[in-house]
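Q: Entry one of two.
A:
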Amino acid sequence: MITHDVRTYKSAEHLPREDQLAWKIAEVAADPVAVLPEVTAMIINRIIDNAAVAAASVARRPVASARAQALCHPMTPGATVFGLANDRVSPEWAAWANGTAVRELDFHDTFLAADYSHPGDNIPPVLAVAQHTGASGADLIRGLATGYEIQVNLVRGICLHEHKIDHIAHLGPSAAAGIGTLLGLPTDVIYQAVQQALHVTTTTRQSRKGEISSWKAFAPAFAGKMAIEAVDRAMRGEGAPSPAWEGEDGFVAYLLSGPNARYQVPLPGKGEAKRAILDTYTKEHSAEYQSQALIDLARRMGPHIGDLSRIDRIEIHTSHHTHYVIGTGANDPQKMDPKASRETLDHSIMYIFAVALEDGGWHHERSYAPERAGRPETVALWHKISTVEDQDWTRRYHARDPREKAFGGRVVVTLKDGRVIEDSLALADAHPDGARPFTRENYIRKFLTLSDGIVATAEQQRFLDAAEALADLKRGDLAALNFAVGADRMGAPRPQGIFDRVRA
């Protein structure tokens, strides 16, 4: 790995494009290095993982809305849309619909370092372009290895959340780079596309603050859609704001830490394998990643506590990120409101820990049901829970040594009689270094569980067979990486929008 120093340059200073971060990213994307077998295996796992979550969310309102919008943009050959057997739409709209389906339940893969990310969000746009252009399974694997590599390393080097920038600003460039690899584009074209994608996918973190709405699911789908459009423009010879990161009025100078800031972004050297996907991890529970270990901890602590009505208070000692994003440090009253949206409850560790204690686990639908959130005993327990930043947990959150890495916390339960019960857990059970790391068998079980009653048994098996054979799929065969669902499982019809009226 080569660490690249990124800082602002005045317009009067000459920064050769070969020294710009966007060019370095493009060089990695254009490098035709072979994909490691273990990387290929993990890419297949994550394609299965994404499909699992998409199946479970296929009838939900935001997913149905995104799918209805996509269907207004038919195209041949086009790309597939989750749930639909024969329809083909323009690839950017397929990325929009499928990206929303993948993110709606907050239930797929994650990587946490200087910033947050869900690298599986790269799959819908890269796959959509691959289907539309008739790429092979091997082409798709190469493109996804790049998408994961770029996003993970941007997340390692550049913190967005401290400046209230949403993490899709790392996704636009990574998806553009992945598409560049997929299509075998030259470095200079990928360079322009990466910069365009950064420029048009920079948004604020209000999408994950206060009353969180369905835009949380739409946001990464938007980034994927914008990445496809950016690559298309760059292929036609159009340029981008340059240098996008280092410019005097650019990303670092005015949206991050300012003109005097420096960032260190690691990237593979020429000929070095792209293996960053192996550092990412998926979710066993449908909740924000920093709650995964704490759900497992609640499941473990519940039997030791016994009667939960004896609890006086619960303190969760955890990292800066957990405290300020999903804890009481966020100062969001909505996180304590039983009438809050699913998206808000998903970002309330106080709610999540209370329900996990009561139920001994977590369910992607039942745990968020309004009647579940409104139970008086749940609300009472929920409001006894607070979070505290612990500097040691913050240090471990950012640690590079896997033996030190931690995304959990220490929970101190004080009973009404003064007795204290405490326990801690550093990593979720499903984490690669956790108690029960996810293997191919777990990914398949997750898909079969989440698609049960939604995708027919034969269709489940057909999809899994195609996914596991990804490396051998020929050019034009990638439409098999989709699943069909009966019309009665697709959700209620939605109100029409602008595109429907134009089409009519």
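Q: Entry two of two.
A:
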Amino acid sequence: MTRPACIPAEYWDALPAELRPGLLAIVAAFEARIAAQDARIAELEARLDQNSSNSSRPPSSDPPHLKSAPPREPSGRRRGGQPGHRRNDRIRLEPDEVVDVGPDRCRRRGEGLAGDDRDPLVRQVFELPVVRPHVVEYRLHRSTCPRCGESPRGVAPVGAEVGYGPRAQAACAVLAGEGRMGKRLVARVMRGLFGLPIGPAAICDLERRTADALAPAHAEALGHIRGLPANVDKTSWPQGRRRGWLWAALANGLGVFRVAAGRGRDAFEALMGRSPPAVVTSDRYSAYAHLPAERRQACWARLRRDFQAMLDRADAGKATGEELLLHSGVLFDAWSKVRAGAVSRGTFASRTLPWLRREVRALLRRGVGCGAKKTAATCREILKVEASLWTFAKAEGVEPTNNAAERALRQAVCRRKTSFGTDSPAGSRFVERILTAIESCCRQSRDLLDFLVEAVEARRSGGKPPSLVPAGA
């Protein structure tokens, strides 16, 4: 019977033989418990060290003490615009009023001066006019029929029952959607800037009406994006007391959002259809596992964060994480040349891709057997979708990262931090439709307010609603 290292030899020799098995069992139990606690402590410490560079956490959650990017070498140039940079002059508008200012007398001799300068120096001053609501009052009179005595009342035009015109309704939607303002703040801003008396309840009603006005454009955009190569992502979105999810799909000139109850395959198919014909760029979540490798691109930005996490854990998987991070840097350097036009996509696929893919696959297999539990699990998970890591090299219009969807969801995340989601399905419909309008108009350089006014007017008059699908798409 071997003496445990934690028990001195003199104590072990003095212990009766019949008590030694029990003591060994106690020591083994305590050692197992200590090992489990050490593993738990290491796991909690690794969780505390998570930040935006080694996990899916947003940058806003980073602690103040997180180390910043290393300082760059000084370039030796002065601060500010450099010689040859593109000028950014103030925009010159058509003036509403022109004031000619000329000198009365010569500054040197005092002689009177007269005449006009053919090329005067122009200084424009921009000012906002005092805004007051344009109020139209409909007075519905009664008239009595001389023959039957009936007294019908005049009928107000369509939209008069709302109490607010299309532009006022669209402005409230812009403040609530793009400005991420709450109902009370929208009411204060409308009253302070435009002199429009309105209450939070009326704001809520106008949001519901705006959501109805945007329904045709949202449905059309949703149907159109299902046929395009799209970046797809999701974030949590509480609805009432239940946890929901806000899904986003981004493509050229189009961004579509949808609030769903879950984040599984059913929610993905409600957004992109049962079998999307084009490539879907996403993270490695299981909701996309049914997609074939040739129609799926796994996000390399997320991979880099996972490789950084392997490095930061400083265990047996550190070397694997360091090598994988290095190879991902090689990939992005090579891809930047493809984007700049210095290297063709075909050259990248035939020369750089084969050896890079071979090296990354070998490193992932080495990581599976590295002895670090989390690193091995991550490498095993990545190997399951390894074929989807390289789809971008052959599919036109596909990028290796899902950054477009993550950036589009950033506004929704900021909104969620202040509003804590929505209280009802009606509120969720407004959020998903106004976010779709904001993102799509931004991508197409369209004026959001003008689009919303057009949509509201079409809804009230029964006309053709405007489209968010880019022209010619």
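A: Comment on entry two: The CA atoms of residues 51 and 64 lie 11 Å apart. The mean pLDDT is 87.
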